[in-house]
Write a structure and sequence with these properties.
By secondary structure, the chain is mostly loops. The protein contains two helices and two strands. The protein has two domains: 81 residues, Pectate Lyase C-like; 114 residues, E3 ubiquitin-protein ligase SopA (Pectate Lyase C-like), CATH 2.160.20. A hairpin with a 5-residue loop joins strand 1 and strand 2.
Length: 242
């Protein structure tokens, strides 16, 4: 009778609480169940983490750069100050995860669910967030320069003080989002829904950008952009002197 030798996946699934600082670089953990695992400080660079179940896991200060996390479940996980640079998070379920101070630059977050995530002071530069669900994220002071958010759901998101220079918001839903004090220089708002959004004290917003977007009387614009409404949907942006 051949003795069964446990695979790496099986060993890890049986050692969930003792994986701090583990060396899992390049490991194949596709589909592993590591719910609630203690992976703080782990090295998972370039690992195959497709469809992995990491809900409620502690992955703070871990290195997941270039890892494949497509279709992974990271809901409620602690990813505080983790490095996900260049990772593939397409279709990942990340709802309510703690990503404060995390690096998500140049990641693929397209169609991922990040609803209600904590993203305070996170780095999401040059990332593909197209068609992602980022509703009600807490993203104050995020760095998102050059990212693509085409068709992204951002209703109720807190992006106050965020760096949003050259972000592509085409067709994005930003209803009631808080963009106060954000830097919007060069951002594309073509067909973006800014109804009820807070744009007070923003930097770099132009009348041309507003003309491309959808706004309503509840949209709070910076003082240098005055709007005269001729109907519920038609408006004219006046010169500052007017």
């Amino acid at each position: 009778m051949t003795e069964h030798t446990p695979s790496l996946r099986e060993k890890l699934e049986g050692s969930k609480k003792y994986l701090q600082n583990a060396d899992l670089k390049g490991a194949n953990l596709e589909g592993a169940d590591l719910k609630g695992a203690e992976l703080g400080g782990a090295d998972m660079r370039g690992a195959n983490l497709k469809k992995i179940f990491l809900s409620e896991a502690n992955i703070s200060n871990a290195d997941l750069s270039e890892a494949d996390l497509s279709n992974a479940n990271l809901s409620g996980a602690d990813l505080n100050k983790s490095n996900l640079g260049g990772a593939n998070l397409q279709y990942a379920y990340i709802r309510r995860a703690d990503l404060r101070g995390a690096n998500l630059s140049e990641t693929n977050l397209s169609k991922a669910n990040l609803r209600e995530c904590a993203l305070f002071k996170s780095w999401v530069k040059k990332a593909d967030c197209s068609e992602a669900n980022m509703q009600n994220i807490k993203g104050a002071q995020m760095h998102m320069q050059g990212s693509v958010l085409k068709g992204t759901k951002l209703e109720g998101a807190d992006l106050s003080g965020a760096r949003l220079d050259n972000v592509d918001f085409e067709d994005a839903g930003l209803q009631t989002a808080n963009l106060s004090r954000a830097n919007l220089k060069g951002a594309n708002f073509n067909r973006a829904d800014l109804r009820g959004a807070n744009l007070r004290y923003v930097v770099g917003l132009t009348r041309e950008q507003i003309k491309l977007a959808m706004i309503d009387k509840k949209t709070l614009l910076p003082n240098y952009l005055k709007v005269k409404w001729s109907s519920e949907t038609a408006f004219e942006i006046l010169d500052h002197k007017n």
